[in-house]
Amino acid sequence: MNSYNKIRLEMRPDQTAGYVFIDFEDSNQHNGTVIEIGLKEEFALSGWTYMHVLQDTKGVLITGVEDGVYTLTLKQDKSDLLDIKYNLEFGDEESVEMTGITKEATTIEIEIGDKTKSKQFGGSFGGALLTSGSFTMMAASGGF
């Protein structure tokens, strides 16, 4: 995982937890385009949403993600299709190359670590949001 120009979003301060890294290629060509990034655990009652404005910051790193199966969604509302390449890294550094983000959510199922570990009822989200640069952001947490 590259250490250049990335935004770090910490879900939980657990150093043993997994991560999701979204690396947008040539993001500066689409400066100002808002990408809605959602992450929801398979059986959770709620999820987490982050609004990322594309700029010179190329990557979004979500850390402290507990083991489990998640649905990652990306969508934008600027055009029918935003022609941008991006790489997803998650779990044990598994990597997937993707192209294009639409107005309808692009949905990717990802598995991090051992999905059989016990979880709190309602999900496993919550934590801090650490950023650099100036852009709009939103976060929601759930679980009890």
Write a brief structural summary.
With 144 residues, the protein is mainly β. It is built from no helices and ten strands. The protein has a single domain (6-130), classed as Immunoglobulin-like.
Largest sheet: 6 strands, mixed
Order of helices and strands: EEEEEEEEEE
Q: Which segments are poorly predicted (pLDDT under 50) over 5 or more consecutive residues?
A: 118-138, 140-144
Domains, number:
1
| Helical proportion, percent range | under 10%
- What class, by secondary structure content? mainly beta
Q: Give the strand order of the largest sheet, numbering strands 1, 2, ... along the chain.
A: 8-7-2-5-1-10
Could you name the CATH topology?
Answer: Immunoglobulin-like
Strand tally is 10
Rounded mean pLDDT is 75
**Strand portion, in percent?**
over 45%
Question: Could you say what the CATH architecture is?
Answer: Sandwich
How many helix segments? 0
Rg, nearest Å? 14 Å
Structure notes:
There is one protein chain. It contains no helices and 10 strands. The relative contact order is 0.30. The chain has one domain (6-130): Sandwich (Immunoglobulin-like). By secondary structure, it is mostly beta strands. The strands form 2 sheets. It has a 6-stranded mixed β-sheet, with no helix packed on it. Strands 4-3-6-9 form a 4-stranded antiparallel β-sheet, with no helix packed on it. It starts with 5 loop residues before the first strand and ends in a 14-residue tail after the last strand. Strand 7 and strand 8 form a beta hairpin.
